[in-house]
């Protein structure tokens, strides 16, 4: 019989002071290796995708390419080790939801996923629990999103001389792009474009870079997540892109909302002026990594249509603010200019 690891996580957000220096948090997280723009594998300053220049020889770091028959495709790889030993099913579902959310922000249709489960100690009774839970999470999430699970491998290994290693699941997701003319990119397009966040924010900083790097607390639960909400978000994005209501789209991911906006502004050196939600803690709103949220840019001429459409769906969304020429402002406080946050070439 497979035994579940019932270890409880002790952290609660009330342990953190609610009033904190947001600027200090930002400038500390800028040197977090998982967020820092200078990280060689995090090229946030790459130019926006030029669809017209793509060919089957393209090697674009965005993962979007054109096949020999002219079909545009997208591929992306994601990994997760958080809480695989405690809740492998939900951890795996979160990983797939993140991968799908990235694809739908491009206007791509996820088609297939392959997976690899690594660093499992076969001699540990919990190893089989992790493998069984990850398998269930893969199958459940792929069924919900209508994605084919093409390959599933597991490697059991454990090197006692190296000490314990976090179990890790890695997935690769392949997607098709049905209409290159409706491809949506992550970068801000124009000063004055409105910014909205689709999805609900929570007083939740669990498993975030903010909690682990800034506060040095690594023992927390998985972030807020609901698989059915993710599926609904997937459908909403399809409709928004088809209707042409949005100019950019970014899943809220590593670093939370602030770093999502920063990544969107860096390619064109455009900033943002936003107002936080008074119903949610500022640190959680800006740096929490709860699932099920996407930031979209909307041309001012289409704001009324966008708002009417979102209201008709009865889906939570929040007017964040607008794109600026370069300054970063939060709740009327200036954080400087985005070009100062981009490393020199």
TrEMBL record:
InterPro entries, per database record: PRibForGlyAmidine_synth_PurL (IPR010074), PurM-like_C_dom (IPR010918), PurM-like_C_sf (IPR036676), PurM-like_N (IPR016188), PurM-like_N_sf (IPR036921)
Taxonomy, superkingdom: Bacteria
Keywords per UniProt: Cytoplasm
Residue span(s) of domain PurM-like C-terminal: 191-327
UniProt xrefs under Pfam families: AIRS, AIRS_C
Molecular functions (GO terms): phosphoribosylformylglycinamidine synthase activity
GO biological process, one term: 'de novo' IMP biosynthetic process
The UniProt record lists the keyword Cytoplasm: yes
Name of this chain's protein: Phosphoribosylformylglycinamidine synthase, synthetase subunit
Organism annotation: Aquipluma nitroreducens
